[in-house]
Amino acid sequence: MRTLRSLLAVSGHLAARHAPAAAASASPHSALFVRALQILAQPGPVRLQKLSPPDAGIVELRLERPEAKNAVGKEMLKGLRSAIEEVEADATANVVLVASSVPKVFCAGADLKERRLMGPGEVRDFVNSLRSTFSSFEALSIPTIAVVEGVAFGGGLELALSCDLRICGEDAKFSLPETGLAIIPGCNYQKAGGTQRLPRIVGRSRAKELIFTGRRFDAVEAVTMGVVNYCVPAGEAYQKALELAREINQKGPLAIRMAKKAINKGAEVDLSSALAIEEECYEQVLHTQDRLEGLAAFAEKRKPVYTGK
């Protein structure tokens, strides 16, 4: 197995991002009112933010449920659905970064404490909603990049697997532990995809070992198996993901959408049918302003300015 040092040499070593913090104060006369507003405006477990220029077009989706290690419960599921709908409706969005604001945690999986309090009907509704949410997330027309620092267990790993690309820090830990609870990945989450997406990424034999044993594996093994695209020093996964997002953001947005569609749809059918899908997707970009802009920029030896038209 390759060492972490060699993997980091391949993956790259980037400086960590530091975001400035701002503080606000209120006068004594308005303190009570401001406190009430703060309570009403408490952030939910999912936060969606559009980055500002020069990174316009990049959207950041953050998981923010520290008290439960970002475990997926009703409110987080509601937040994910809302975020997906907002991103899909935004024609200016070109790529999504999926990250966590909780230190050393991407997502710990299902909220089993909340699940135990649900009746049979509630469980059925929740699982159906989760199934459609994960499917909708994977079906987003623009690229998604999972930023994994710390643990990604069960549904957390399945969420990462539903993204197009995955970047992790060297301290990341992964697992699909469902068999230890007498269920299977994809049973707890219906079509969340543990038994289906993982084999397509690492191969059937390796996926069977990981799912049968439910064992944890680290960042070195994850990048070696292809579970993640890059492994970087702890705390620097976001920077690497942002670097990739910026590269994608410079490309023709319609071309990126059609490339994702061609790859995803083509992988589900035989080669002949897949080539027909590719041809259909190519037709969608053939008569666009962006294609002409790309040719003009190449001839004029300048960077293209794409508009998504």
Quick recap:
The protein has 309 residues and is α/β, with parallel strands linked by helices. The chain has helices at residues 4-11, 31-40, 74-89, 112-116, 120-138, 155-161, 194-202, 204-213, 219-225, 237-249, 253-266, 271-286, 289-300, and strands at 46-50, 58-63, 95-100, 105-107, 144-148, 151-153, 165-169, 173-175, 217-218, 230-232.
Structure description:
With 309 residues, the protein is α/β, with parallel strands linked by helices. It contains 13 helices and 10 strands. It has helices at residues 4-11, 31-40, 74-89, 112-116, 120-138, 155-161, 194-202, 204-213, 219-225, 237-249, 253-266, 271-286, 289-300; strands spanning 46-50, 58-63, 95-100, 105-107, 144-148, 151-153, 165-169, 173-175, 217-218, 230-232. The strands form 2 sheets. The protein has a 6-stranded mixed beta sheet, sandwiched between helices. The chain has a 4-stranded mixed beta sheet with strand order 4-6-8-9. Helix 3 (74-89) packs parallel to helix 5, helix 7 (194-202) crosses helix 8 and helix 11 (253-266) packs antiparallel against helix 12 (271-286). It is globular and about 60 Å long. The relative contact order is 0.12. The model is unreliable at 7-42 and 187-191 (pLDDT under 50).
How are the SSEs placed, and which strands pair?
Layout: H1 4-11, H2 31-40, E1 46-50, E2 58-63, H3 74-89, E3 95-100, E4 105-107, H4 112-116, H5 120-138, E5 144-148, E6 151-153, H6 155-161, E7 165-169, E8 173-175, H7 194-202, H8 204-213, E9 217-218, H9 219-225, E10 230-232, H10 237-249, H11 253-266, H12 271-286, H13 289-300
Parallel strand pairs: 2-3, 3-5, 4-6, 5-7, 6-8, 7-10
Antiparallel strand pairs: 1-2, 8-9
Helix pairs in contact: 3-5, 7-8, 11-12
